[in-house]
Amino acid sequence: MINDHHMYDKLINITDERNVMVNEDLMNHTYTRLGGKADFLVKPETYEQVQEIVKLANKEKIDFTLLGNGSNLIVKDGGIRGIVMNLQKLTQVKTNATTIVAQSGARIIDVSREALTKNLSGLEFACGIPGSVGGALFMNAGAYGGEVKDVLESTIVVDREGNQLTLKAEELDLDYRTSNIPDRGYIVLEATFSLENGNYEAIKAIMDDLTYKRESKQPLEYPSCGSVFKRPPGYFAGKLIQDSDLQGKQIGGAQVSLKHAGFIVNKDKATASEYIDLIHYVQATVKEKFDVNLEREVKIIGEDPN
């Protein structure tokens, strides 16, 4: 990259030295424990800093990538050029009557737990989703019959030019595991969830049941990106993979989970290339055997290794 020191000085001027990392290994910041290095990894602490970093990237004509908390993501082995932004320092969660306002770096699990402590119902489905609030909006995260779309009231975002906008939920085109956030280049700063008064014991019973289902069925003992594929219409991805005799299939250190076929785990120091090759192998095998196209739910970003 041209003039590393120039860019570093500009970034620490916006935030500070604690929040700017140079040539940082992204495998330390993703759930899969995969990925090469970022030229600059920056962790803003305020909404204004987010805006300033976006404006700086535009002014300097430098590549800019939002990482989220790295849960539903594969970063390629060549890493990511330019500025990578992580919002894990924006984690404030506030409750007001039946409304919860959560910053984008907060984990959606923690927001569901906050709802429980305030006897609020509607976010029970999120008690096992590992992603951040921003990531949950980005892909309209859902589980066990519930989704973000059901409870989201509004959001504050930063657009590609660095402007701050307040949008109603219906302006995000939320649908099954999609929204218009990636297409429009929005960076979610916070979300407002509209919930209903409920009974603590009843809410907790649902969350306990969903947590048990998740822990008993999902391979949480290995790094993974969660559910790799979207559910194809009329089928279950995990069942198709299982019926294709792919459980246990391994490429390098990446393996189709023996516990849940819809997961690919980093069993033994896998590279991102091995993980991605295994995704393609599963897609090709299921297509050949059942003529069903498995669409990825996980996002792949970054560059191939040299």
From TrEMBL:
Q: Which NCBIfam families match?
A: murB (TIGR00179), PRK13905.1 (NF010480)
| Keywords for the protein's UniProt record, in alphabetical order | Cell cycle, Cell division, Cell shape, Cell wall biogenesis/degradation, Cytoplasm, FAD, Flavoprotein, NADP, Oxidoreductase, Peptidoglycan synthesis
Compartment(s)? Cytoplasm
Enzyme nomenclature, EC number:
1.3.1.98
* Membership in a protein family: Belongs to the MurB family.
Q: Which molecular-function annotation in GO is an example for this chain?
A: UDP-N-acetylmuramate dehydrogenase activity
User: Which residues carry out catalysis?
Assistant: 177, 227 (proton donor), 297
Q: What gene name is given for the protein in this entry?
A: murB
Cited SUPFAM superfamilies: FAD-binding/transporter-associated domain-like (SSF56176), Uridine diphospho-N-Acetylenolpyruvylglucosamine reductase, MurB, C-terminal domain (SSF56194)
Class of this enzyme: oxidoreductase
All copies of the FAD-binding PCMH-type domain together span 34-213
Q: Which organism is it from?
A: Virgibacillus tibetensis
Taxonomic superkingdom:
Bacteria
Q: Which residues form a coiled coil?
A: none
User: What name appears for this protein in its UniProt entry?
Assistant: UDP-N-acetylenolpyruvoylglucosamine reductase
Provide the function of this protein.
Answer: Cell wall formation.
Which pathway does this polypeptide act in? Cell wall biogenesis; peptidoglycan biosynthesis
The cofactors named for this UniProt entry are: FAD
Keyword match Cell division? yes
Q: Which reaction does it catalyse?
A: UDP-N-acetyl-alpha-D-muramate + NADP(+) = UDP-N-acetyl-3-O-(1-carboxyvinyl)-alpha-D-glucosamine + NADPH + H(+)
